[in-house]
Amino acid sequence: MKLVTRLWTFGALVPALGCAAAFLLAGEIFRQSMKESQDEALLAQATTEAISLFDAPDAAVHLHMEISPLLEQVRPFAPVASVYGPDGALLLVFPKDAEVPPKVAPSPRIEEPVLLTDEARNARELLVTLHHPKEQRPYTLRLESSYGGIDATMRRFHLAAALLTGAFSLCLGVFQAIGARSVAIRIAGLARHVAAVARGDLERLPPDDRAGDEISDLRDGVAHATLELKGNRDARERFIADAAHELRTPLAAMRTSLDLALRRQRSPEELREALTETRDEVDRLTALSSRLLDLAAMRSAPLALETVDLRELAASSHAAYEALAQARGIRLVLEGGSVPAKGDPATLRQAIDNVLHNAIKLTRTGGTIRTKMEVSGHRAAIVVEDEGPGIAAADREAVFEPFHRVILQVKGTGLGLPLVREIASRHGGSARFEEPPSGRGARFVFSLPLLG
């Protein structure tokens, strides 16, 4: 079922049918209430007639309605009254021209009023036995009230209900059709956009929608997802282009060395030098490909999460790089106590190694690298501070882009810090550079959610 049809059906047709059913039910309740009121009116009239039926001076039988001063006012809706003698023969009737049974069965002792429905005459009748105070013989009082008034009232009620239901249904249908068309247009715009995204067109956002409802929220979500996809695609394309450039550079160097070695006869020393240069470029290619594989694996491979102590991971990294630091005359300092967190020990250790290795490469001889454990609120952080040249504020985000290197004289692939940020992101954390308190060197912060 199409959206417009569904909205029209459940937003207009079903409520209209429900309204009609409610009117019908209300009509039946109204009819029953009027019938009950009619029975009560007959009982009230019977009570009045029972008191005055034999109150004439000579105790003659008579009907009170015949002498009522309000006779003309009540005649249109007053019940038909008739009195039958002990033998069941008709004695009195009001109005005079009313059609009533000429005779009733000899009256048994009807102690209580009896209400009956005459389907043929479409009327309600009441029978009650009254005893003459002097003769002590039973007389039967019969009151009859037609259902015609109730039927006429119900016809007016049904007509009014039909008109109201029709008007309500028409208005509801028009409003629902307008609303359904608007919703359909908005959703169709989103559908066209999603189809364009599926074809790879990420240059346009979905149509603007300021309605402020759930569809508007959906549009904003789709727009955000489109921007994210575009950003990821652009980053991937830049990454591929940068990777191709980085791979081409050592290959070109290797090709140049080999071409020069083959251009003329070379001495063993010259050949050894060419081969050494080629091996260095092969090492560079190996390191670059290894980093590329690490980055690709980090973005797709599942993490083996467990409870880890960040200080223990930092201590093991310090132990691994202690010899390299001493060879460069650099002192490694680890500060802070145990900090529990949830993470993958192997990748977290890899991140700490990358940061510590960068700090060692950039710190001058005789400098100090401090690794601190910090806790703030529900977050734990590993902070690495060095005494190197530092990173300018403008470059503190750029260094996390693949292949971006601030100091070109320092050897590296330009993939270490992007890998560190990817590891932090996969753990629900962050990686960033901050202004060092001393104003010298660099301050790196690797933040993770604190365990518990």
From TrEMBL:
Signal peptide: none
Subcellular location: Membrane
EC nos: 2.7.13.3
Entry-linked InterPro entries: HAMP_dom (IPR003660), HATPase_C_sf (IPR036890), HATPase_dom (IPR003594), His_kinase_dom (IPR005467), HisK_dim/P_dom (IPR003661), HisK_dim/P_sf (IPR036097), Sig_transdc_His_kin-like_C (IPR004358), TCS_sensor_his_kinase (IPR050428)
Transmembrane segments: 6-26, 157-178
Reaction equations catalysed: ATP + protein L-histidine = ADP + protein N-phospho-L-histidine
PANTHER family (alphabetical): SENSOR HISTIDINE KINASE TRCS, SENSOR HISTIDINE KINASE YKOH
Gene Ontology CC annotations of this record: plasma membrane
Originating organism: Vulgatibacter incomptus
Lineage: Bacteria, Pseudomonadati, Myxococcota, Myxococcia, Myxococcales
Keyword Transferase annotated: yes
Name by which UniProt lists this protein: histidine kinase
HAMP domain location: 181-234
Ranges where the Histidine kinase domain occurs: 242-452
